[in-house]
Amino acid sequence: MSDQKLAAIMEAQRTAFNANPNSSWAERKTNLIKLGKVINDNELAFQQAISEDFGNRSFVETTIAEMAIIHAGIKHALKHTQKWMRTRKAPTAMQFKPATNKIIPQPLGIIGIISPWNYPLQLAIMPLVGALGAGNRAMIKPSEYTPKFSVLLKSVLGEIFSDEEVYVAVGGVEVAQEFSSLAFDHLLFTGSTNVGRIVAGAASKNLTPVTLELGGKSPTIIDESANMKLAIPRITNGKLLNAGQTCVAPDYLLMPQNKIDGFADALIKQAETFYPTFAGNPDYTSIIADSHYSRLQGLLEDAENKGAKLRTAGDDDTQVMAQERRIPLTVVTNTTPDMKIMQEEIFGPLLPIVASETLEDSMKYVQEHERPLALYWFGEDKAKRDHVLKNSISGGVSINETAWHVVQEDIPFGGVGPSGMGGYHGQYGFETFSHMKGVFFQSKFSGGKMLFPPYTEKTQKVLGLMKKFM
Ligand code: NAD
Questions:
Q1: 465 occurs within a structural domain
Q2: Which of 50, 90, 233, 237 is the most exposed place for a label (fewest CB within 10 A)?
Q3: Which of these, 248, 226, 224, lies nearest to 237 by C-alpha position?
Q4: CATH of the domain at 361
Q5: How far is the CA of 21 from the centre of ligand 1 (A)?
């Protein structure tokens, strides 16, 4: 794809937007309804395409972690967007009365969406729901790691939207680079922190505002008050969904040394209950590409060479597993900070455990590392829970659960610092993709004329009076 092609699409979207810069609720509603329908109608095709791109992606996971989230997001947007679109009254300070203030939400124009491969449908469509609900047009660049999915997405969205409404740019990194250099009115990027830096740099040349949905190492703190019967399956599930290739997967656990062995054994047992076999199991997702498979194996080798103990779930044939690019849950104990597994985002089914004796130790560990996308705390002691919530900074939190905060449409989803900036979902997405325009309505009885020049003693008196009211 050439620069001109993408630039021409953007130009066409811009012209169409300028002709109708504030689409009605009826138009937005129609867009959201037809988007939901076409995605639903193509559920099987999406399951198949994504699975082919992964080698194997559980169809059920595609339904749970992509289709269901989109369905809920669209339903929520259909219920609330008309209210979010309304002009809001805002307070007016005493000295400006009887004037009034209002906030008018206004579509921004053209939203760019760059999405990753791990949940390729959900992470392209959820930003689109926000963009369309806010009355915008959009251009989407899906990942080159999911080529079958990307072609399908282009054809499915092409059935219901013209290029001037929603355009999907398919291609490799060079297309992504061109794409990120376009002068969007807002660019939402989901992907790695490193590429996020490059994308933010490209957007800054156009002063395009960005929302960066990035990754990082999300800690899970296991308090001694935790209900282990609940914690173990929830953590195992959060870690093994999509074979750990989830931005908010628990990256590592923090817990007292004397609890680690029992906990690690229980996690392995739980994984074997969830997946009686890993090889050939349609429920268990493959690693996306050979390069990612080798990277994960490299993390294990490095950890083992530096003294870690590995526990591996199942006893599947390692050759078959390698051919299928599948890795079972591998719990890593005796970890030390020099291990690569403790330094980079894992993004796979490997779960290191770090010994941490007290809440203070765990908090110190979290504070001394980069601000994560998610933080998980398991326990029943409410005072400790509140201490963690108040004193740790992460994009979001689930308490006694992993990942579920992401699917709550009534709270913002996003990172902080190296794990991202800005947020979306529900009303937060609507506002991200809107210009919340502040408007001041002056009254004919305004006292502003008392401050007109020439400045005299009378002006000083008025200023003195104003200070009393300000
Ligand atoms: P990635 O950063 O490699 O790629 C993401 C997108 O960026 C792709 O569409 C790719 O084509 C594009 N891209 C690559 N190079 C580019 C460049 N030079 N300029 C512009 N665009 C470019 O990420 P990935 O491997 O697809 O996804 C995994 C990462 O994404 C992990 O770090 C994960 O934590 C993160 N992630 C975050 C969220 C979230 O919501 N915060 C969700 C899923 C994944």
A1: no
A2: 90
A3: 248
A4: 3.40.309.10
A5: 31
Are both 365 and 298 inside the same structural domain? yes
Cβ pair 210, 189 in contact under 8 A: yes
> Contact at 8 Å (CB) between 134 and 42?
no
**Over the chain (470 residues), what is each successive 10-residue block's mean pLDDT?**
80 98 98 98 98 98 98 98 98 94 98 98 98 98 98 98 98 97 98 97 98 97 97 98 98 97 98 98 98 98 98 96 98 98 98 97 97 98 98 98 96 97 97 98 93 95 85
The four Cα atoms 81, 113, 183, 86 give a dihedral, to 10 degrees, of: 0
What is the overall mean pLDDT for the chain? Answer: 97
Q: pTM for the complete prediction?
A: 0.96
Q: Is residue 9 part of a domain?
A: yes
52 is catalytic: no
Return the pLDDT at 397.
98
| Residue at 191: amino acid letter | G
Domain annotation covers residue 90:
yes
Query: What pLDDT score was predicted for residue 2?
Result: 52
For residues 253 and 268, membership in a common domain is answered with yes
Best residue among 192, 241, 296 to mutate for probing ligand 1's pocket (most ligand atoms within 8 Å of CB) is: 192
H helical segments located in 86-205: 122-133, 147-160, 173-180, 193-205
Q: Residue of the nearest CA to atom 23 in ligand 1?
A: 191
- Looking at residue 47, which CATH number applies to its domain? 3.40.605.10
| Number of domains composing the chain | 2
Same domain, residue pair 389 and 372: yes
The binding-site residues of ligand 1, defined as CB within 6 angstroms of any ligand atom, are 114-118, 123, 141, 143-144, 173, 176-177, 180, 190-192, 195, 198-199, 213-215, 247, 345, 347, 373, 415, 420
Determine the Cα–Cα distance for residues 378 and 347; give it in Å rounded to an integer: 21
Domain that holds residue 332: 219-414
d(CA 141, ligand 1 centre) in Å: 11
The catalytic residue among 61, 66, 164, 213 is: 213
Does one domain contain both 133 and 68? yes
pLDDT in tens, 367-393: 999 999 999 999 999 999 999 999 999
Looking at the structure, do residues 67 and 155 belong to the same domain, yes or no? yes
Query: Is 392 a domain residue?
Result: yes
HSE (side-chain half, CA atoms, 13 Å) at 151: 6
Same domain flag for 176 and 278: no
Asked if residue 369 and residue 223 are part of one domain, the reply reads: yes
- State whether 187 and 208 are in the same domain: yes
Q: Catalytic annotation on 345?
A: no
- Residue ID of nearest Cα to ligand 1 atom 22: 176
